[in-house]
Write a structure and sequence with these properties.
The protein is α+β, with helices and mostly antiparallel strands. Among the domains are: 125 residues, L,D-transpeptidase catalytic domain-like (Beta Barrel), CATH 2.40.440.10; 124 residues; 111 residues, L,D-transpeptidase catalytic domain-like, CATH 2.40.440. The chain is built from eight helices and 20 strands. The strands form four sheets. It has a seven-stranded mixed sheet, with no helix packed on it. Strands 11-17-16-19-12-13-14 form a seven-stranded mixed sheet. A four-stranded mixed sheet has the order 6-7-8-9, with helices on one face. A hairpin with a 2-residue loop joins strand 16 and strand 17. The radius of gyration is 38 Å and the shape is elongated. The termini are far apart. The relative contact order is 0.14. InterPro entries: LD-transpeptidase, LD_TPept_cat_dom, Transpep_catalytic_dom, UCP029342. Pfam families: YkuD. This is L,D-TPase catalytic domain-containing protein.
Length: 524
Amino acid sequence: MADRLTAAQSTTAIRRWGSPGIVTLAAMIALTAQTAGAGAKQVRPAAAVEATAPREAGEPIMAIVSIQSQRVTFYDADGWILRAPVSTGTTGRETPAGVFAVIEKDKDHHSTMYDDAWMPNMQRITWNGIALHGGPLPGYAASHGCVRMPYGFAENLFEKTNIGMRVIISPNDAAPVDFSHPALFVPKKEAIAAAPARADKLSREAEEATRAADETKKAAAAAAREAAALPATLRNLERLKARADAELAYADKALTTAKTDQARTKAEELKQKAATKAADAATQFDAAKTDAQPKRDTAAATKEAVKEAATKKADAVKAATEAKLALEPVSVYISRAAQKVYVRRNTHKPAPDGGGEVFDTSIEVPVTIRNPDQPLGTHIFTAMAKNDAGLRWSVVTIDNGDDAKDALDRITIPQDVLDRIAPTAMPRSSIIISDEPLSKETNYRTEFVAVLSNQPQGGFITRKPTAPMAVASDDAGWGDNGGFGFFFQQRDPNPQPVNPRRRSGQYQYYQPMQPMQPMQRGWW
């Protein structure tokens, strides 16, 4: 009955509209069919679910975010340990695909750009605002560039990760694959075994050299003050001598002109006193002049001693710094665009002008790439664990160019760089080969930030660039910063606070880009 009623109503409507109405109705039906067909063609990622590996998990070594599948997977030395759905950046605010590392963690973070929005269990990967954090997941890419994870998953994960953990954001699904190649670092057992004791020994020597340099500087300062006071002292003694000589001359003249015995006796007494005073003044002046030159020589000598002590301190601190860094995983980035190799190791020292920790940036040198005009792709090689050969490696490829093996075959890292970093390479060390240059967001408070230029970057390039990098100071005490102060004391005229807040209704949000800042140079 209901069907017949509907049919009757439709017939009545057609009669009322006439031929034009029929044409219009047909067009509407066709448009609806097209829209429905187009909607049917839109394929959303399959719904990801949280999962935990059925084994005891180790420390997470890397996280891989798949923009295509809207999923994050965390890996330890033996494989995947955690998986969860995510929501990456929406159209126009896309999460940048590339290579990153965790550089700051904040349990109760609030956005500096989006009305103080709550972003719990935040793990920052760029200083201009890209991070992994807890957030709502609508089932598709909906963020402003960050990687949202389920709230509970983000909370459980927070204490498991460390600063420096590798984060790979891939446009497609990617996973680490076991890999071996003669170019990958092979540590030396004797170097690994000797590294801790060597670091302690060189640290003590650096402390002793620092104390010696400080004492030499104090002695030089005292000698310089004495030398600086000499001219005034000599001028004063010279004036006293001149005055005494004038008094003696006056007494001698008075004796010559004395008319009576009484006047003559008085003049002789006056002359005797004046002569004694003049002799004392001359003696003091001559002694001061005699002492002045040794004091000047001492000041000059201690000034040279300060330079020598500073050089010894610099050498000792450099050696101690290298020894301490040898206890850390090493990360290497090779850029075809820049034709350079960059080396990073975490000092674990708080950055003095903002959040996060300081990374050593002292090695940046040219690298030889065979056929440099041909793409390499982007490949991340990671030392997953120790094995009998030294280290067990994996590779993750997120941008195809050359395959991983051929890409490594084309690279020649300078031998002196290898000699500094390879003998003590340890698990979680990595080598990244890419066609891309390092992003301007790479600085002394990051490991590496490299984004794929052939993928959307809306959520990255629309953010305020990080303030220009500071310059390393060479006058920071070795002991003041736990052994890394000499190389890593930073000064930033516009320090970026850890969690700045919105002020006067304005957000820290900018469209313009800033040019690449020059990389910090160290003792290389």
